[in-house]
Amino acid sequence: MLCTFVMMRYSSIPVAQTVVQHCKAKGIKNIVISPGSRNAPLTIGFTEDSFFSCFSIVDERCAAFFALGMAQQSLTPVAVVCTSGSALLNYYPAIAEAFYSDIPLVVISADRPLYKIDVGDGQTIRQDNVFHRHIGYSADLKQDIEHATDRIRRYRPDWLEGVATFEAQAEIQDYNNAELNTAFNLALTSKLPVHVNVRLEEPLYETVKSISALSRIAHPETTEAEKIDLGSFYELWNAASKKMVLVGVNWPNTIDQTMLELLAADPSVIVLTETTSNLHHSGFFPSIDSLIAPIERLDRSDELFEKLRPELLMTFGGLVVSKKIKAFLRAYKPKYHWHIDPIRAFDTFFCLSSHVKWNANEFLKKILPNSISKESDYYPFWNKVKQNYEIKRKQYLSDIPFSDMQAFNCIIENIPPHSQVQLANSSTIRYAQLYDLPTSLKVFCNRGTSGIDGSVSTAIGASIDSKEPTILITGDLSFFYDSNALWNEYIKSNFRIVLINNDGGGIFRILPGDKDSSNFEKFFETTHELSAEHLCNMYDFQYECVSDFDKLREALPQFYNMKNGPKLLEVKTPRTLNNKILLGYFDFISSDFINH
């Protein structure tokens, strides 16, 4: 039996070799590549090495969100690689999302030589520091001297004045090694996106059989958790009779169940959780707007908000969806606000008193077991409120006509256990916030910038290494805006899309404004009559459309059956009725919200 030995090929350009070696040394294994010519040396280096898992995505905006979804799940850096020019700018939405969501996206852009920028050459823009307001670090690597030296002598002879070629190349190699170490180590330790700009001169496609670039790898230093005096935290925690814990975006299974039990057992504590918090307990408050919005409608709202105002607010996790809780805590500020996060703290409520740079679970393990459960009517009072609106919600759902609100309830109740759920922004995430999601689900949403762009691409990227099925729930504008996401060969057979199509941006009907003008429909709501059927035919998705409750309920079991390839279920809901039903819900549960 003959064994075939495949010899690896390397780009002949030292800087391309160096970038690939650094990625390999730092364990950056997943590489999402958009086709181009200027990035050919990088593409050759990554695709020729079996260490890397390479993915080809044509649309750079989709590619970046696809990579973001992969990094969201692995919590490790994922690289995106593109050619020069405007291709790079298409990464920006995903980079901004990564920046505000603490996702380590590594952006590697091919660029033209410095002497060809701003001289009228094709496909050139100023790529260095192009993301400077939303990036952890920008590295602009220097062009090699030993590659295409004749061009340098022709266009920039000053680079070689008074120095031998090999000496100039050694300085460049040292500089590039240092920049790559800084950028990649920051991505590994801070979870921020980084940008590496690689200047490449032609010829671009030449290969060699061995590496010539000497890459010096410096691994990140381990850092210990910040030392803090826990005494003052114990004292404040035990003294407060009204403590509120608010949890935003949070990775599943990161908080010990024992800690959740201790929080739930303390009558002086109420825990408000968002859908993206992935925290569950029968004593927690998972539908924040169902608690806050009805109070706004009551004559005694100030009295009740004062009763709800915490003395101490503890927050952890990422950004918070609910505008209601943000408005409440900004108007009724707690005396103390602690945010627990090892990297950073946003002063969301303009009253931040302590940023504890610890892992949230470790901090809770230090504070809660030794705390004193303080007598208080804080939790008992608000728990009765919660029980009341949960009863009213069931009653309301049974009485309303088919609509977004009824559809979301049915869709969520029937999601298969242990699924990964990806939620689009705008109306989708807000409707999901109204319900108690099954505890086995893992829920994610791009809440860093809260944009509608990239939700489909993110979900597909997030599904890549997941054994469980991935369910994307999205609105129509989010879906159609990112429909190029379906243009790839990596969509798994257990990938599902639930498309809530109300023929426009339904959230604008919930917001203030004139809803009955043609300008509103055209420029805010953006009405349309689009269907996903033709896209499903193009991309080989099984397609089904429903427009009433009975058909939705009948369709879901087969739709959630994870056989027979990817599927899309389009749910048509009444555009002009949805907002009335949602706003009517808050009026309904406030009608006898508190009668004690």
C-alpha termini separation? 85 Å
* Cα-based radius of gyration, to the nearest Å: 27 Å
Strand order of the largest sheet: 3-2-4-5-7-6
Mean pLDDT: 93
The class by helix and strand makeup works out as: alpha/beta
Strand content: 5-15%
CATH topology of the largest domain: Rossmann fold
CATH class bucket of the largest domain = Alpha Beta
- Strand segment count: 19
Structural overview:
With 596 residues, the protein is of the alpha/beta class. It folds into three domains: 10-208, Rossmann fold; 230-384, TPP-binding domain (Rossmann fold), CATH 3.40.50; 402-576, Thiamin diphosphate (ThDP)-binding fold, Pyr/PP domains (Rossmann fold), CATH 3.40.50. The protein is 38% helix and 15% strand. Strands 3-2-4-5-7-6 form a six-stranded parallel sheet, with helices on both faces. It has a six-stranded parallel sheet with strand order 15-14-16-17-19-18, sandwiched between helices. Helix 3 packs parallel to helix 4 (92-101) and helix 9 (288-296) crosses helix 22. It starts with 9 loop residues before the first strand and ends in a 6-residue tail after the last helix. Mean pLDDT is 93; it is low at 1-5.
